[in-house]
């Protein structure tokens, strides 16, 4: 192969290229960029009339010089009549569980909802599976898996079950790559369920909530407190938002003129953008926050560039000597809407950004009932600010 057909890219070009496609460096080496902007080095060659692609690694992990060295090794194998892919499989048979776990997280991350989910996978497979990370993946046994799971099984059962499922996925992927054979030692049904006790399921959907007739008095008390956490909790109650949506709220998500808060899809539980109509009470809170800053997080933490701590509102509730939970206010709102108003079920559910369980119904749903939701949230704000416990007024959509 002539020198002129090699080393077509410079290191600067490799760093700056962003157009999707394969960008040749010559000699079968390409920088591949997908539609999502993911960049990786690949080696392409033809064997038995078929095109073969071998991934070398991400551009961040592998320099241009390293990628060229790998490609040169593969070209030497081809010249000697050796199949690079077959040789790689031989090398891969000695891969550790840790290698396979990291590779699985990297491969699957683009399909997961957000970076936090990927970080959770990586953490559990690094911290809790530490005992088997250096073990060859084809030698991981049922006893190895039990040694990892048993210390957690009764102490933190939810974490243990999540870990078991993740180990099972990694080992399934290793088998699909030809790195191991036989039954998966982390499989539950018909295997580990015979060796570990079935864990007690937590009761879901019953976060301690404030009765709705106590809300006006609670909001009056909350309004006397000057902490950022108090304003954040007020705003959360008035909008029906989840904690994560509230804590990550930034000024670029707010349309002050139209009085709308648009939470982007990557911060929503359902992975879909959610528009929240802002009541006059919610807008008053934003006006107060604007006097402090109009950039970054609306409710900042220790520094303007960091969000409020996830524990701040919970600690505030403790200081108020309340045993209710932050998430419970969504239940409070839903109970009030059902019992004290005539707004439809669909409007109330959409105000909480709940997904539609019925797929047929979801397929026909086009709008987000925004104007009806605006009236609902204004009615809720009016009720919250009435200030007298037990004073309830039947509200109807106008």
Describe the protein's architecture and organization.
- Helix content is 44%, strand content 10%.
- It has three domains: 90 residues, Integrase, DNA-binding domain (Double Stranded RNA Binding Domain); 98 residues, DNA polymerase, domain 1; 173 residues, Intergrase catalytic core (hpI Integrase, Chain A).
- About 4% of the residues have low confidence.
- It is globular and about 85 Å long.
- β5 and β6 form a beta hairpin.
- It has 398 residues and is an alpha+beta fold.
- The chain contains 16 helices and seven strands.
- It comes from Caulobacter hibisci.
- InterPro entries: CB, DNA_brk_join_enz, Integrase-like_cat_sf, Integrase_catalytic, Integrase_DNA-bd_sf, Integrase_DNA_bind_dom, Integrase_recombinase_N, Phage_int_M.
- Keywords: DNA integration, DNA recombination, DNA-binding.
How would you summarize what this structure contains?
The chain has 398 residues and is of the alpha+beta class. Helix content is 44%, strand content 10%. About 4% of the residues have low confidence.
């Amino acid at each position: 192969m002539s020198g002129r057909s090699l080393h077509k890219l410079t290191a600067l070009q490799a760093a700056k290229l962003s157009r999707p496609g394969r960008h040749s460096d010559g000699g079968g080496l390409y920088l591949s960029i997908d539609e999502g902007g993911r960049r990786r080095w690949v080696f392409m060659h033809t064997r038995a009339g078929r095109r073969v692609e071998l991934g070398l690694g991400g551009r961040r992990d592998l320099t241009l010089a390293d990628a060229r060295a790998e490609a040169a090794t593969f070209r030497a194998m081809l010249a000697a009549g050796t199949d690079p892919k077959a040789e790689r499989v031989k090398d891969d048979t000695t891969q550790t569980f840790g290698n396979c776990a990291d590779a699985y997280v990297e491969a699957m991350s683009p399909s997961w909802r957000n970076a936090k989910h990927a970080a959770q996978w990586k953490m559990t497979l690094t911290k809790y599976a530490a005992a088997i990370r250096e073990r060859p993946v084809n030698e991981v046994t049922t006893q190895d898996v039990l040694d990892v799971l048993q210390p957690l099984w009764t102490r933190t059962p939810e974490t243990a079950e999540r870990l078991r499922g993740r180990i099972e996925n990694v080992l399934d992927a290793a088998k699909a790559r030809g790195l191991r054979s036989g039954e998966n030692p982390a499989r539950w049904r018909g295997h580990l369920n015979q060796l570990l006790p079935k864990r007690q399921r937590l009761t879901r959907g019953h976060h301690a909530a404030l009765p709705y007739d106590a809300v006006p008095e609670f909001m009056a008390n909350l309004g006397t407190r000057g902490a950022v956490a108090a304003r954040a909790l007020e705003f959360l109650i008035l909008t029906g938002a989840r904690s994560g949506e509230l804590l990550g709220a930034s000024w670029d998500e707010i349309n002050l003129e139209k009085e709308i808060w648009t939470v982007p899809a990557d911060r929503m539980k359902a992975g879909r953008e959610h528009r929240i109509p802002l009541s006059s009470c919610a807008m008053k809170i934003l006006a107060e926050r604007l006097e402090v800053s109009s950039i970054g997080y609306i409710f900042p933490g220790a520094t303007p560039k960091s969000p409020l701590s996830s524990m701040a509102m919970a600690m505030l509730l403790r200081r108020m000597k309340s045993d209710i939970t932050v998430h419970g206010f969504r239940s409070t709102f839903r109970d009030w809407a059902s019992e004290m108003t005539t707004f439809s079920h669909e409007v109330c559910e959409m105000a909480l950004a709940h997904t539609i369980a019925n797929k047929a119904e979801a397929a026909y749903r086009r709008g987000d009932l925004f104007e009806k939701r605006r009236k609902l949230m204004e009615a809720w704000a009016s009720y919250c600010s009435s200030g007298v416990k037990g004073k309830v007024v039947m509200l109807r959509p106008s």
